[in-house]
Amino acid sequence: MSDGPSPRVVGESRSVNGAFGLLAWVVGLAYFFPVFWMVLNSFKSELDANASPKLFFHPTLDRYRDVTKSTTGLLSFGEAFTNSAVVVLVSTLIVLTLAIPAAYALAIRPVAKWRDVLFFFISTKFLPVVASVLPIWILAKNLNLLNTRMALIILYTGINLPLAVWMLRSFFREIPRELIEAAEIDGAGLKGQLTSIILPMAAPGIAATALLCVIFAWNEFFYAVQLNPVQGSTVPIWVTTNISTRGDFLAKLSAASVLACIPVVLAGWIAQKRMIRGLAMGAIK
Amino acid sequence: MNTTLGTRIAPRPLGLSESWRRRLPLLPALVFTILLTQVPFVMSIWYSLTDWKVVPPTPRQFVGLGNYGKLVSDHFFRQAAWTSIELTVVPVLGSILLGTAFALLLDRKFFGQGLVRTLLITPFLLMPVVVGLIWKNQMFHGLYGVINWVIEKLGGTPVEFISRYPTWAIAATLIWQWTPFMMLIILAGLQSQPGDVLEAAKVDGATPFGIFRQLTLGHLRPYMELGILLGTVYLIQVYDQVAVMTGGGPGSTNLPYFVFERSIGGGWDFGRASSYSIVVVIASIIIATVALRVLSGLLKGEEIA
Amino acid sequence: MRGTVRPWSAAVLFAVVVGLAAGCGGSSKSSSSSGSSSSNGGGKGGSINVAIVDNPQMKDIAALTPKLFTAKSGIKVNYTVLDEGTLREVTTRDVAAGGRQFDVAMIGMYEAPQFGKAGNIIDLTPKATADPTYNLGDLIPSVRNGLSADGKLYAAPFYGESSFLMYRKDILKKDGVTMPPHPTWAQVAAIARKVNTPNMAGICLRGKPGWGDLGAALTTVLNTFGATWWSAKPDGTVDKAQVNQPAFKQALQFYTGLIKDAGEKDAANSSFNECLSQYKDGKVAMWYDATVAAGLLEASDSPVKGKNGYAAAPVNKTPASGWLWSWALAIPKTTSKQDLAWKYISFATGPQYIKEAGAQISGGWPAIPPGTRKSTYEIPQYKQAARAFAKPTLAAMSAAPINNPGTTKRPGVPGVQYVGIPEFQDVGNQCTQQFSAVIAGRTPIDAALKNCQDIASQVGH
To answer: What fold, for A75-282?
Structure first.
């Protein structure tokens, strides 16, 4: 299959295709507009940002200076980024480490009641986060995990694991059986099969899964604020420290949001094609 | 690639050691998930059987099913349940429709195709809290919102979106954020469509619309079902946008926000809040079972070795 | 399979971007932040964790703490800045369920006496009396009262506010009306309807759901109209919900009717910040809200600087109706660092900080924490910088009817714009959702009142 999408409806005239291209551009720009507006607001003064929409204003970098100014004792931009990076990357690695063998056991050499197991994984996503936070807080308190990055690493692993198991299982189903059989005949165990065949072949799917895990973990706010609001906290918490109950904050918040979203947005932009390929590989069967 | 190709391994009788060999790789993930989700779940069940308020601190008392009895007559809970259904069904369907439309647009070659796709996926990558604040303060605002600014420039009267249509405003925001996710899945579906079949249909003189309806849609169905399933799992949990945009205002309190209000959001009545959440979980699982087993063909027809 | 390795480049790139960003912005001590809260040593004098709300005054003190406090005491202070709602969730649970996340927690006047009575926070009176630099007698009496239970001070006020009416002198003058210094609600409503135009609303009133948003403004109106949420038994507990009484309906009708006739646009979605924007933008002529707003309206970059008049909170049946609120610092019973915690509180809420801050914070003298001490209003620089609003603010703070807000006895601990019982937060949140729907024109007033009566009736049963 070619890397990019190919024209599906063949034989149409150029003008029709051109019209569709134009439409796609209009839709794309309109859809992106709120993001563009947020970026624009991040260069305004608070007075301009909290008034009727203005197209002409004095652009300033002051809001970026405001939000990145670091003060001893206050969660700074840099600390929040470090914490988020550690929490997100470590939890995503654990997710993959746990989900890959599990997906193997659900797809390639399935356990007896694999449907029920798969359903169990998905069903855990239905316990409302707001309801589970209290028992989790009490557990974390008793285990001395409040205000630690470890608490968030464990929770984000739990949040993303069902999704990862579900998706990886689909990708693994796509791998031709005879390849695995051949490896098995050659005497390869689980580890051998994984490293020699499954992981290389399912790489786009694994990457797509990892990216989704990263997106959800990077943007998670509720558990972070409930369990670890103190110094070791993450980027979403840092963003909300720029809100003010008594005074304007839109421009500052916009600047903080732009900075907070950049890593994930960049990763998403760069990986989008592979993500589609990963999903196409077999999210279904 | 095609799943039907290749010989499947012939079913072997599973001996004890064999079945455990199969289970072993599953165990770490399963044990982790059970510990992390079922321990709090069981704790919640226990809380739901007690009368337990943190503020003012009262000794926890076992009240049996008392909390569940109160729940039956609580019309605010029913209202929240209805809002929850609205705030799940509307965004899921809206984003799957819009996502399909976008995917169809992107599945052609045109100048700057990659750039347009980049623009379209961005909302999915943003933080939900930030998305709520952008839409509330910069798009929907009754006075300073961009939408009303455009409406006024076109000679219309401004609309107070968040006050007048709070649930719809939240739903629109959710659709905006989740459409790219659906679009990616549908796009994946479109690209895995075998080109030769389409070619053949074309040669047979089928109209583009006919091809779309008869071939493409059928092929996309499982992808749409996947999108609906994953979308539902995440959208049923929506809390951030409700908290940020309306604070549960006029009729926009969904179940997660309702449970939040009863517990740490001010009610501090953990006994009753837990009973609500247990009901929510059970109802969600019933709905999901129906969705998965009856409506969906996702897991059907998979013959497993 | 060509290209199967490439997907990882995205992950690597992500890691690099994050790593670079963290490296560039990272300060020297990111590693010390990871461990559990109690173990990180900080300076030689120890360290404490402090939770504060996201008001500008709190952010100022956070910025000045290393220089004005840590340098002298050696005590390192780790701040957690949260919005009002989240702060309340986190601190209430921490204090009430013993999470030991914080050594000092900022709580509101609503919580302080309740937590104190419940034994969750320590009595500060002995420490405050023994500390010569603190000057306990200097606190504004109404504020001290509101933060005390049975004569014991449970939280030290950092910031205080009342409510009053702000209006555009130029607009009222143009329309030939004058605002009396102590107006009644009838007078204010008449003026609002008179000056109301399609481009400029007569008055901005809170309409956003929340016991601290619409709930606060509306309850002051309820009070002065002779209405109340609940009647009280002689022992001070809740007797019966009074939402179905005529006075309640009359007050709610007045409030929602005034918004409908002469209120701001999108009122059901407006609270302090939304009204602030509209007032500064010339979209409203009057605004009834917190006294702290005056400092923002008179700030050097404000477009309405110098154009504003300030009148007492409007009344109907009572002599005064302004609310009373304070953000105050308390010490949870569970902390092992009570002495360090008090040293910090004495610095943050003592008279010395206010004197030092004026010259050092970006907003200058008008931005110092107001409404806690009488001595603040005697500092010459502050009197000069805040001449437009210092007097009306102090008058409003002193007049706030904390012990006798309405015409009948209230249940619970004292409170003006709230009822001092734990259930009010929940009832206020739910009922203001109903009333906000009335303001938005989505619910008839009688249906909202009936729902609210049902909600309020669950208290005490």
So the answer is: MetI-like fold (1.10.3720)
